Amino acid sequence: MPWAVLFGLLAALLLLLLLTRRRTRRPGEPPLDLGSIPWLGHALEFGKDAASFLTRMKEKHGDIFTVLVGGRYVTVLLDPHSYDTVVWESRTKLDFHAYAVFLMERIFDVQLPHYNPSDEKAKMKPWQHGVLTTCLWVNLVVFGSPCSSSFRFLLRSGYLTLYGVEALPRTHQSQAQDCIHSADVFHTFRQLDLLLPKLARGSLSVGDKDRVSKAKGRLWKLLSPTRLASRAHRSTWLENYLLHLEEMGVSEEMRARALVLQLWATQGNMGPATFWLLLFLLKHPEAMAAVREQLEHTLQRVEQPVSQMTTLSQKVLDSMPVLDSVLNESLRLTAAPFITREVMVDLAMPMADGREFSLRRGDRLLLFPFLSPQKDPDIYTDPEEFKYDRFLNPDGSEKKDFYKDGKRLKNYNMPWGAGHNQCLGRSYAINSIKQFVFLVLVHFDLELTNPDGEIPEFDLSRYGFGLMQPEHDMPIRYRIRP
Ligand code: HEM
């Protein structure tokens, strides 16, 4: 029998198997929605615009349901009162790392021998975010103007802070070199970052594959441990991480790949977070006025000209409730990570309202806080609107009491995740963003080149990857403040 016919028969047999062996819902399990396409299920709608798809599913099935997505059964939980059960469950039952390892391999080609995420986490603590915050201040000052995009500005400063600078003491020449090198890192990183959703979903075109491979190759060279070895003022974070990789016996090539992965994990969300924050301020003059007023107070309290400052102390950073509220509100509207856990054993999952659902081993569990609590009209009035004081009490302190169904919520805004795997870099990230905004607003007057321009739409393919990114930039005009 010719090979082609044999392959054809095998393929038909496989398809028949797939079509006939469709899963059915067992008693006690969440509603099951397989979609109309065998195996693929809802993969296309999910990949195109996850938020709209999950909203439709929620309207159809309620706040817990299982959908088939590209051969995987994903149980989606959208009741924020029940999130704690998931995020504090033990790793032996609901595991964060299996999915993280899958992405690590698929996106960044990183495979680490004897990889133990808990061990890595323990070794990488403490983050010493105080020291990092001071270093970042210096690097932000080096770049000195918002003329390039906020993403570029923050990534370059963040990169130099964690991965080290050309030389110490810093000279004009070494700073110029830092500018050139970090611009190269940013530019190449961005080429990869733009294709990341397609890369994660395995839907790159031939041309895209070529671009991704070139960007990765270049980044592996730029961040190779040999090249980084000569850099000065490397962070303790980097030193610890390199030591950890060395102890695991990771090859030089694989170490470079791991460093690229870390660049994305530590920097990928910071620029977009700052972009949205500044844009909301520029679009809402009352918010900008309130933030500026608070910065004036801060400056009076510090009693030191900005030009002589070497950092903002943690005490000062912690006493800016208006800016905190603006940041929380801006993250509420734009942070859309998937909180994903692998179901490791058959499990009975209790919901906050007393219901209990059975989860199957091998399925995936997904929380999507962007829909609820963050955009939930039962929790936030006019949830689509930016309200700079949403997280402020009338006395100016931070507002923390939000309710759904008459019950106070513990998780009312989750840009950093929650529970065992909550973002480790949260304090450093918040400090960085606040320092950046402080420096920009103290030194410059800014306005949108087109003040009536609409706020850009989201790039819908990025749901699940952290901060949403805009479809396009928003040009600004600025002048140095007298
Ligand atoms: C705006 C900036 C950032 C946002 C919105 C953000 C958000 C997140 C989220 C949502 C998670 C996953 C939580 C989960 O699935 O349960 C996470 C994990 C993590 N983040 Fe961040 N992150 C940011 C910046 C950073 C920075 C600057 C660092 C390091 C310097 C960092 C280090 C980490 C690490 C190590 C984890 C994994 C924690 C674990 O394994 O348990 N992040 N982050």
Automatic annotation (TrEMBL):
<keyword id="KW-0472">Membrane</keyword>
<keyword id="KW-0479">Metal-binding</keyword>
<keyword id="KW-0644">Prostaglandin metabolism</keyword>
<dbReference type="GO" id="GO:0005789">
    <property type="term" value="C:endoplasmic reticulum membrane"/>
</dbReference>
<dbReference type="InterPro" id="IPR001128">
    <property type="entry name" value="Cyt_P450"/>
</dbReference>
<keyword id="KW-0349">Heme</keyword>
<comment type="function">
    <text>Catalyzes the biosynthesis and metabolism of eicosanoids. Catalyzes the isomerization of prostaglandin H2 to prostacyclin (= prostaglandin I2), a potent mediator of vasodilation and inhibitor of platelet aggregation. Additionally, displays dehydratase activity, toward hydroperoxyeicosatetraenoates (HPETEs), especially toward (15S)-hydroperoxy-(5Z,8Z,11Z,13E)-eicosatetraenoate (15(S)-HPETE).</text>
</comment>
<keyword id="KW-0812">Transmembrane</keyword>
<feature type="binding site">
    <location>
        <position position="269"/>
    </location>
    <ligand>
        <name>substrate</name>
    </ligand>
</feature>
<keyword id="KW-0256">Endoplasmic reticulum</keyword>
<feature type="binding site" description="axial binding residue">
    <location>
        <position position="423"/>
    </location>
    <ligand>
        <name>heme</name>
    </ligand>
</feature>
<feature type="signal peptide">
    <location>
        <begin position="1"/>
        <end position="24"/>
    </location>
</feature>
<keyword id="KW-0456">Lyase</keyword>
<dbReference type="GO" id="GO:0008116">
    <property type="term" value="F:prostaglandin-I synthase activity"/>
</dbReference>
<keyword id="KW-0643">Prostaglandin biosynthesis</keyword>
<dbReference type="GO" id="GO:0004497">
    <property type="term" value="F:monooxygenase activity"/>
</dbReference>
<dbReference type="GO" id="GO:0020037">
    <property type="term" value="F:heme binding"/>
</dbReference>
<feature type="binding site">
    <location>
        <position position="112"/>
    </location>
    <ligand>
        <name>substrate</name>
    </ligand>
</feature>
<dbReference type="InterPro" id="IPR024204">
    <property type="entry name" value="Cyt_P450_CYP7A1-type"/>
</dbReference>
<keyword id="KW-0732">Signal</keyword>
<keyword id="KW-0413">Isomerase</keyword>
<dbReference type="GO" id="GO:0106256">
    <property type="term" value="F:hydroperoxy icosatetraenoate dehydratase activity"/>
</dbReference>
<dbReference type="Pfam" id="PF00067">
    <property type="entry name" value="p450"/>
</dbReference>
<keyword id="KW-0443">Lipid metabolism</keyword>
<protein>
    <recommendedName>
        <fullName>Prostacyclin synthase</fullName>
        <ecNumber>4.2.1.152</ecNumber>
        <ecNumber>5.3.99.4</ecNumber>
    </recommendedName>
</protein>
<dbReference type="InterPro" id="IPR036396">
    <property type="entry name" value="Cyt_P450_sf"/>
</dbReference>
<comment type="similarity">
    <text>Belongs to the cytochrome P450 family.</text>
</comment>
<dbReference type="GO" id="GO:0001516">
    <property type="term" value="P:prostaglandin biosynthetic process"/>
</dbReference>
<keyword id="KW-0276">Fatty acid metabolism</keyword>
<keyword id="KW-0275">Fatty acid biosynthesis</keyword>
<feature type="binding site">
    <location>
        <position position="364"/>
    </location>
    <ligand>
        <name>substrate</name>
    </ligand>
</feature>
<dbReference type="GO" id="GO:0005506">
    <property type="term" value="F:iron ion binding"/>
</dbReference>
<keyword id="KW-0408">Iron</keyword>
<keyword id="KW-1133">Transmembrane helix</keyword>
<dbReference type="InterPro" id="IPR002403">
    <property type="entry name" value="Cyt_P450_E_grp-IV"/>
</dbReference>
<feature type="binding site">
    <location>
        <position position="106"/>
    </location>
    <ligand>
        <name>substrate</name>
    </ligand>
</feature>
<keyword id="KW-0444">Lipid biosynthesis</keyword>
<dbReference type="GO" id="GO:0016705">
    <property type="term" value="F:oxidoreductase activity, acting on paired donors, with incorporation or reduction of molecular oxygen"/>
</dbReference>
